[in-house]
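ok so i was messing around last nite and threw this chain in just to see what happens. nothing serious, just curious
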Amino acid sequence: MKTVMPFDLQGGAEFVKYVVLIVGVVVMFDANAMAQEEAAVGSVNAPDAAAEPTSVEAPSADAQPEDEKKSVYYKKVQGWLWIEGFLGPSAYDPDQFGSLSVSGVPNAPRLSGPEYGFSVLLGLGGFAIGATYRQANYSQYKLMKFGVDMQGVFRFVPYVHPMVRAVIAYARTFDGNPYGLDNTESDGVVFTGGFGVRIPIIRWMSFAATFDWSFVGLSLRGDNPNDGSRFKSWIGGQQFGATFALTFHFIGVRKN
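result:
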């Protein structure tokens, strides 16, 4: 009578032999890998007696300016020639410091309007000076200013340079006048002071934003529209403005 076993003893012995063989191969490869890793670590940590000591050279003096040019503190406006165009809102009160005493002529109203213009400047490090032209367009007339623009830029502050502005210019009104007089001639002088920031964009371009206050003194000559009498008088006014400028820098701009 043949006895039936729950599994084949011969097949089970073959299965156990394969399992032992696979485990042995895995253990052998694992031991070999650990030995190679220990040998590599030892070769890295072990000092090479035959190797000559490596001398560490101090950075040369020539490398220091290059590092300085790459630092954030070197991002500053440069260039000998600055060409600037600007635009912004303004408000003008022609007789802020005294009204015109003319019979039948009302005081000049305070008006608001855009102001725009351009400047051509000579850049001298943190100081720039040159010629400027500005024109403000109001509903009843236009105010023109032409003169000298001076800017001081604190370039030691990286990325955003604080700046101040001063302008001394000739001023006149045209295409109308503040008082609505006949045959009017109006010209004088303007003094402007302002402060703001100048932001380098790329090495030959920067953006500036300033808030300006101006004293405008005008000599007004004209005919009274009521009786035709001729008169001459000085008026003193003030103007507020916000200037947003885009400046291009040429000649002597950093190349790196």
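not much to say yet. Residues 40 and 46 are 10 Å apart (CA to CA).
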